[in-house]
Here is the input.
Amino acid sequence: MAEVNFGRVLLEDVIPFWIRHGWDRIHGGMITSLSRDGSIVDTDKSIWFQGRAAWMFATLYNTVEPNPQWLEIAESCIGFLERHGVQETSGKLYFTVTREGQPLRMRRYFYSESFAAIAYAAMFQASNLERYRSAAIRMFEAYLLGCFHSGTIASKTDPATRPMQSIGPWMIAMATAQELRANLGDLEVLGVACSVWIDRCIEQIETVFYKPELAVLMENVGADGQVLDHFDGRQLNPGHAIECAWFILHESKLRKDKRLGGVGLAILDAMWERGWDREFGGLYYFRDVYSKPIQEYWHDMKFWWPHCEAIIATDIARRLTNHERYHRWHQEVCQWSFDRFGDPEHGEWFGYLHRDARRSNDLKGSLWKGPFHLPRMLWYCMKLAEPIKDPWGF
Here is the structure.
């Protein structure tokens, strides 16, 4: 397979698909539940996708070209979020609302706030309007307080019986701080600079969740970082872990920090080994740290987003190190993903495949899939396309 032209796929295929079919010109924002040809399957809207889509289109405006339609779409999504996404009594963001904006579901997580934060940060970069800067800081504060202030998020298990901690809040905090720093500068949030938040997140990931003796990055651990020998405690999510690896590799690239790069590469190596299906190709959705049976019935399915994260991670790794295995892994995951998720007839990617790569359904979008993981991957790899002249020699 020849090198993928990431920019062409992004700008001639994926972004036009979402402009044609997803952008709601009547009520504002983005409809994401679409079938193969872009026809609407469900009109309910995910609030976190209003933030994700606003970030994506504002980022294209900021970094590719100042296309006024991209900015209009970003403004449409952030405007819908502001009008309909905020619960009046608590200020917390909903997870889903109707097409018109009536509230449907509130989740206990604060990920909608994190995506709103990066959207506002990108909108500030695009417009220089102070209200977007203030809103980005406010949303990141809400995310940090919601995730890390004791007792804010209800635990999945009774903390008196089995206290657990998850990697998700830390890795998303890191990525959010990286985006705010990129668009607003290294400002303070809750009295701490974004770069320091990033350091704290990496320290937690490296010392609490990464287990070099097991060659694994855990999804959940006990209160003291121990592996819990139960279904939830043993469960691995290779896509999540590889996404975390490229966040760290991104930071190491910016700082020219070989030690951080070594951490990111070690996580990538470990989770590629755990996650890649040697029989059918592609990345499993879940694995068990001790190779025991997994309770989720979709554990061996192939979802679109882990493959997007693996394409980014292997692209950074091959450019930083020039090691043959990262070139090979990048080629392998690109070929497998574009061949099987891609739809040359209608564009974009299918989201859900069985283990042997048969399509599970024809969805191009849902409340979980929309203009984020795939276009972010295409955009990021497009920006990486210039070869690094001085690999670090890991």
Summary: Residues 130-148 form the longest helix (19 residues). Residues 62 and 174 are 21 Å apart (CA to CA). The first strand starts at residue 33 and ends at 34. The chain has a mean pLDDT of 96.
